[in-house]
Write a structure and sequence with these properties.
41% of the residues lie in helices and 16% in strands. The protein contains 15 helices and 13 strands. Helix 3 crosses helix 4 and helix 7 packs across helix 13.
């Protein structure tokens, strides 16, 4: 049986694309081994998804203690690859994937990389020279790769859950019992929430209450939920405020407009669903959200604002909902960024299928 090691962790933005690829590999009869850390969220998420998981005892190498642990983790990664003898290794970024990728180089195994963001991440910058192929979510990432290595690149889009390719907005609106004249606004700052976005909506809450044809789905994040519920003095019966929505993809499909951060997966889901958006990237340059959001802005598919402009962004969202023709233009423009099913494209491209 063919065997593939997938390695990454730390955040959902790294883990869920890897799990989407893992599902397809398993469907094709490939043995999948997932390697992450023993301390981050992947240790719970991956086994729950039914995959064999090995957690390395490593943390970001920012202290002497962590650096010593990380060096030990590198030797663990090399040993693991030599023992498992995988047909291929796919790294999905983050410092967590480095030990196994080093193991792949040492053991001369086929290495593949997947980049979720518009800008190439630090780990992928270290290993693109050794990779057989680099799967890019966005064409812009070519700018970060020297010309002599660009022949290794393939723009696939981000690996997304299979269900997103089958969802229809009209059916989701029917399921949510949306009236014909109702407009749906989804506001989310991700699973952790976004204080600036939450505060901006609270500031404009009276406007939400006044518009009887507006339905709000507001994902506040776990940390902010209790405080926000106390701050809201009144809510319309059709509006829904939750820490997070388990059916987020379904609500996104039903929405007329989405206000959100610019995480790689969120942007890819917006592109696949063809949704107009108002994006407010997270400030940190390291996270790469500005470049992700700019992709939408540059093709005229989104409005983009800074954290400090979150209140203006919310006001703009209300304006857009009153301007159907502008929303329609944004829907047309976003089609320029749409790709095929990334999961199948990635799995098809692995050089493991020949006898």
């Amino acid at each position: 049986m063919r065997k593939v090691i997938l390695t990454t962790g730390g955040t959902g933005g790294h883990i869920y694309p890897a799990l989407s690829v893992a599902d397809e590999l398993r469907r094709r009869g490939v043995e999948v081994l997932f390697v992450g850390t023993s301390i981050r969220m992947e240790k719970d998420i991956v086994p729950k998804a039914g995959f064999k998981f090995i957690g390395l005892n490593i943390a970001p190498p920012r202290s002497v203690k962590n650096m010593i642990g990380y060096v030990k983790g590198i030797f663990q990664g090399i040993s693991l690859v030599l023992k498992e003898k995988p047909d291929a290794i796919i790294g999905f970024g983050n410092y967590i994937s480095i030990p196994v990728l080093i193991g792949g180089v040492v053991a001369r195994r086929k290495i593949y990389l997947q980049e979720q963001n518009a800008n190439l991440g630090g780990t992928n910058k270290l290993f693109y020279r050794f990779a057989k192929k680099i799967f890019l979510a966005f064409e812009k990432t070519y700018d970060d790769i020297p010309i002599k290595f660009q022949n290794k690149c393939l723009v696939t889009g981000n690996p997304l859950r299979e269900e997103i390719y089958k969802i229809k907005g009209s059916e989701e609106r029917e399921r949510l019992k949306v009236e014909k004249n109702e407009k749906i606004l989804l506001i989310t700052g991700g699973s952790l929430g976004a204080k600036e976005i939450n505060d901006a909506l609270l500031k404009n809450w009276d406007r939400v209450l006044e518009d009887k044809d507006l339905r709000i789905y507001w994902a506040t994040g776990e940390k902010n939920y209790d405080e926000i519920v106390k701050s809201i003095n009144r809510i319309k019966i059709q509006d829904t405020v939750r820490p997070y929505f388990d059916n987020m993809i379904n609500i996104m499909a039903a929405a007329d407009l989405i206000v959100c951060r610019a995480g790689a997966l969120t942007i890819s889901e917006i592109i696949q669903l063809g949704k107009p958006s108002v994006v407010i990237p997270y400030n940190s340059i390291k996270v790469g959200q500005y470049a992700n959001g700019k992709l939408l802005k540059d093709v005229g598919a989104a409005q983009m604002y800074k954290n400090s402009e979150a209140s203006i962004a919310i006001e703009k969202a209300f304006e857009l909902l009153e301007n159907k023709s502008e929303l329609d233009v944004m829907k047309i423009n976003i089609k320029n960024l749409k790709t095929e099913n990334a999961v199948k494209k990635i799995v098809d491209s692995l050089d493991i299928w020949r006898n």
